[in-house]
Amino acid sequence: MINSLRGMNDILSEDYARFTYFINTATDVAQKYGFHFIETPLLEETALFKRSVGESSDIVGKEMYQFTDKGENDVCLRPEGTAGVVRAFIQKKLDKAGGNHRFFYHGAMFRYERPQKGRLRQFHQFGVESFGQDSVYEDATMIMMTSDILKRLGIGYRLQLNSLGDNNCMPDYKTNLIKFVEACKDDICEDCVRRLDTNPIRVLDCKNDKCQSLYESAPKLLQNLCSTCNDDFEKLKKILTENGIDYEIDTNLVRGLDYYSKTAFEFVSDNIGSQSAIAGGGRYDRLVEFLDGRPTPAVGFAMGIERLMELIVMPEVSRDGYYIGAMDAEAVDLVVGLTHKKRATDKATCDFKTKNLQKHLKAADKVNAKFCAVIGSNELNNDTIWVKDLENKTEETITLKDF
Ligand code: HAM
């Protein structure tokens, strides 16, 4: 027997109902915020992710599904959605057009991580990217949108917030941090020693307890912001407070992708175990330029759909549509025809096999139909159909014309 690959799941039945409920809810919220759908390919040039997510990140360094295609191109399955959307934005020359461009997307992402609860190798994200707005109000809007989606789904969260500074203040901070970490180089983990050379600020979110206690006295990002970044961060906190969104400051929140500057945020849940991040995002003002576009400020976020599916409070599903069945072999053609006609306006299913009434009623209940309609020999002779309303428990025999 051939099974699916490790960390790659099928989505069907009850899970699929949750999946589509999530997509429909998030899409509705994104559209209410004025965002438009964008679809980008699952396969991109590997160079796109190396230049955006960053060669020093775990995602690019260790987790890419990368291969050479039949045309000798170095390609990989997308590990995240932002890079592809930025590529499309530049390719369609929207950077040159100016103005604001706001997109949302959803689809499969691929990361060769060690699978565990909440951590898959193929998973799905719902993401949002906004181009052309340098105002911190847009950062707040991203956070409000994430919060609105979670609230609509009945999901509680904690919001963690940080600022990573910009080109003005980050370089000095990095120099100070490197000085600090080099002084304790003999005591830190191997990963942090490597990060010192590749992306020093990533030491701050090292999961090793010993490293964490050593870094407690490290210079703090938030205490080293320039006045512009500091003012923006203060303003962001004020907007969130005024709009009823609680947050926690986490000065070690640096995110796992290299393209961020200024605002960085993560929504976490305390109800799904160790893989607790349910959404994450931030500002990435330099990425469009890195990918050869005209400098364009940008901010966005993405939500992990599989993790959210564990938490969604599903609304009660009410009975819907028709189940149509035949008790007599001669009525099957008629049942198929009636079902086909009903589908023009309603949900309708039918059974090609003849059964007794009890069995039809059971089958109608199983597909959660509102009406169970059955044709036996009596009905066939009189051009009628027996219909039971399974919600109100009423039944009647009506003419086929009325049906
Ligand atoms: P990210 O934090 O890497 O950000 O991923 C966003 C969300 O995807 C995470 O919070 C998590 O819920 C989910 N996720 C990530 N990896 C896995 C996995 N292996 N299994 C299951 N779920 C996972 C990004 O991808 C950025 N592109 C977000 C962004 C958009 N920033 C700006 N715009």
Task: Give your account of this protein's structure.
- This protein is α+β, with helices and mostly antiparallel strands and 403 residues long.
- The chain is built from 15 helices and 16 strands.
- The protein has two domains: 13-169 and 225-311, 2-Layer Sandwich (BirA Bifunctional Protein, domain 2); 322-399, Rossmann fold (3-Layer(aba) Sandwich).
- Strands 1-5-6-11-10-9-7-8 form an eight-stranded mixed beta sheet. A five-stranded mixed beta sheet has the order 13-12-14-15-16, with helices on both faces.
- A hairpin with a 5-residue loop joins strand 3 and strand 4 (74-77).
- The structure holds histidyl-adenosine monophosphate.
- The site of histidyl-adenosine monophosphate has 26 residues, from strand 6, strand 10, strand 11 and helix 12.
Descriptive terms for the model:
403 residues, binds histidyl-adenosine monophosphate, 8-stranded mixed β-sheet, alpha+beta, Rossmann fold, BirA Bifunctional Protein, domain 2, 5-stranded mixed β-sheet
Number of strands: 16
CATH topology (level 3) name of the largest domain? BirA Bifunctional Protein, domain 2
Q: What integer is the average pLDDT? A: 96
Largest sheet: 8 strands, mixed
- Give the N-terminus to C-terminus distance in angstroms: 47 Å
Name the ligand types: histidyl-adenosine monophosphate
Question: Treating each run of at least 4 consecutive H or I residues as one helix, how many helices?
Answer: 15
The computed structural class is: alpha+beta
Contiguous uncertain segments of 5+ residues: none
